[in-house]
Write a structure and sequence with these properties.
661 residues; mainly alpha; single chain; 0% strand
């Protein structure tokens, strides 16, 4: 199997797998730890306040490639500058009006969280909203506008020098997005060559992972390369074309490798792919695209195809408003609670509400678990360091070594997949807040206690609100992903749509559904009651995965040669009729998944296959009097029938409801 089911796998096994090294992981972790250490030493030496926030910004803004890393860092500084100026203006207007300040907190919270769901800007809008809302609450602690404005001005410095270090590290040791783009395409070609030559299981798993990632990240690399002038302007569209072509090629190679009966017809293909892969780092772009794609390089996207700021259903989908209202309720509960108790030190509860609230209950609870785990780990390391190590430190070098060592561990976790990366972020933040409190090593454990209490309290509030008020199960998104994959298979079989988009939808749909099914573990039973469960998700996804290989193989064969070229017309009609029946059934299955009910097959597929075989038998008998079918047609008929039998076996299981129990 390409994508392994995970519902029966223990958390410890998943965690162990996620912590394993991969190419470049140590390099990323070391660079993050180095920058964090430099930031901590600078803050201590120059007595810049809030060193913990400066160090955490390194984790927040660091990226694997230099292009996105530099742009994110610059964007962070520009955003901080604009945000601080606007916050100062707002405070000058509403400083002496508690009701207006509370109204602004509510406005920023609702508006920001609404836009995270209803716009293409996504989570960054929520981060901006969190900053605005939190700044409005600071007047309760520092009721002197002049002091508060001076503190906000210092916050610009807190952001500025980590950004300088981030840009410097990317310029000196960063990985060029152009180089990463070429390497990624080369890896696809190398894996495709391995699949065509040997088809070993390890190569299949790597190919499935590469295809599940899609082309989005590689297109970003191309955009950054163009923006930073790292690639010739003529090479950018060609590399974009090579990205699409390599994706199609890898998909086809994977489909062919899954058919164990298919002979290795072209032994030279792997060698050709290897030579192309070697040519990519040498910038031989034009030759590569000529080999991989006969199409002209893509032109600029027209305005008609560009998406606006808002999603199409931004003002009609009630889920967006409900999400914003739930987030607002959670924020208000935490803010009113710690204000009433005069316990500002647990203000991390308010921040937690912004950081962990996501569209579905499963996603929210998963992020809650990661945040709490990271917080407890970071708090434990910080408390242990404060008790046993900090009292014996005599110079800043020893503190730098401690910060660097813990940052390296946290960075290793944070550059993992989305399953665990947030643990590393929160571990680092909690450690920094405790150890870097002030302008030197701190022995105050109250800070650790209050921060952890705030995070736990925020987690509890969000979990209660999001699981009881308008709860949204992630099952809806899972069913949509599976339905998309089913409809994609139907389109492929019916020869509708373009291969690149179809392949991307197919692979990403199956992988996305299996990835999302892991989050079902985090949903309360009352939220997911009556919806799809993890095991059913895996059965459907793996069945669709089984269908993909023969259907893609049929599609590519017919795209190149046409179905049964030279065969009698009645036989062609029978073949196409059977494929149409399967495509129609898959469409019905997709619609049933969307509405979550068992679809009724639109045709008796077994009967359709028997009719096809009967038609084939009559055609063969009639052809005997004319000397029989040519060998090419006989071979293709046998090949097609074997694929149809394979499709029939999987479809029969689905039609019987084995995947919809």
């Amino acid at each position: 199997m390409l994508f392994q089911p995970r519902s029966s796998v223990r958390y410890t096994s998943i965690l162990w797998d996620e912590l394993q090294p991969y190419p470049g992981r140590l390099d990323l972790s070391l660079r993050m730890a180095l920058v964090t250490t430099l930031v901590a030493v600078t803050a201590m030496a120059l007595r810049v306040p809030e060193a913990a926030i400066s160090c955490y910004l390194v984790f927040f803004a660091f990226r694997a490639d230099a292009g996105s890393g530099i742009l994110i860092a610059i964007g962070l500084l520009v955003g901080a500058t604009i945000g601080i100026l606007l916050a100062i203006v707002c405070l000058m207007v509403v400083a002496d009006e508690p009701a207006l300040r509370l109204a602004l907190v509510a406005f920023f919270t609702f508006g920001g969280m609404y836009l995270t769901q209803a716009s293409r800007a996504g989570p960054p809008i929520g981060t901006v909203a969190m900053v605005f809302a939190f700044v409005m609450t600071l007047y309760d602690i520092v009721p002197i506008p002049e002091l508060l404005i001076r503190g906000l001005a210092w916050m610009w410095v807190v952001v500025f020098f980590p950004v300088v270090y981030l840009i410097a590290i990317h310029l000196i040791t960063g990985h060029s997005p152009a180089r990463r783009l070429r390497s990624a395409i080369a890896e696809r070609l190398e894996v495709a060559g391995q699949l065509l030559s040997s088809g070993d299981h390890a190569a299949k798993r790597v190919a499935a992972t590469l295809l599940a990632e899609g082309n989005g990240e590689l297109k970003k690399y191309a955009g950054f390369s163009k923006l930073l002038a790292l690639m010739d302007k003529h090479d950018v569209p060609r590399m974009q074309a090579a990205t699409d072509a390599s994706y199609d090629l890898l998909t086809l190679a994977l489909a062919l490798s899954l058919d164990e009966r298919r002979p290795r017809e072209n032994a030279a293909a792997p060698e050709v792919l290897r030579r192309i892969a070697e040519a990519i780092p040498a910038h031989q772009v034009e030759r590569i695209v000529d080999i991989l794609s006969e199409a002209d390089p893509p032109g600029p996207v027209s305005d008609a195809h560009k998406g606006g700021f808002f999603l199409p259903d931004a003002f009609s989908n009630p889920l967006y408003t409900q999400f914003a209202l739930k987030a607002l309720l959670a924020v208000m509960i935490t803010y009113i609670t710690y204000t009433a108790l005069d316990w500002f030190a647990i203000h991390t509860a308010l921040i937690t509400c912004f950081m962990v609230a996501l569209g579905t209950t499963g996603e929210t609870m998963h992020k809650l678990a990661l945040r709490l785990t990271g917080c407890l780990l970071g708090g434990a390391v910080a408390i242990g360091s404060t008790i046993w190590l900090v009292p014996h430190m005599t110079d800043i070098g020893q503190l730098a070594f401690l910060v660097g060592a813990v940052s390296l561990i946290a960075a290793w976790i944070s550059v993992g997949s989305e399953r665990i990366s947030y643990i590393g972020w929160q571990m680092a933040l909690c450690f920094f807040l405790v150890v870097l409190h002030g302008f030197g090593p701190s022995l105050d454990l109250n800070e650790a206690r209050d921060r952890i209490i705030g995070i736990v309290f925020g987690n509890i509030v969000v979990s209660v609100v999001f699981s009881t008020i308008w709860p949204v199960s992630i099952g809806q998104g899972i069913r949509k992903s599976l339905a998309t994959s089913g409809a994609t298979l139907a389109n492929l079989l019916a020869r509708r749509g373009g291969p690149t988009g179809d392949y991307a939808d197919l692979i990403s749909g199956v992988a996305g559904a299996l990835r999302q099914s892991e989050l079902l573990r985090f949903e309360p039973a009352n939220v997911r009651r009556g919806d799809i469960d993890a095991r059913t998700t895996e059965r459907i996804a793996l069945s669709l995965q089984e269908l993909a290989a023969p259907i893609v193989e049929l599609r590519e064969h017919d795209r190149a040669f046409g179905p049964l070229r030279g065969a009698p017309t009645p036989l062609k009609r029978a073949v196409l009729g059977y494929e149409h029946a399967v495509a129609q059934w898959l469409n019905d299955q997709a619609e049933g998944l969307e509405a979550w009910h068992r679809p009724k097959p639109s045709a008796d597929l077994a009967l359709a296959l028997r009719r096809l075989k009967a038609r084939l038998a009559r055609a063969r008998k009639a052809s005997i009097h004319a000397g029989g079918f040519p060998r090419r047609i006989r071979d293709e008929l046998a090949w097609r029938l074997a694929l149809y039998e394979k499709i029939e076996t999987v479809v029969r299981r689905l039609a019987a409801g084995d995947a919809l129990e």
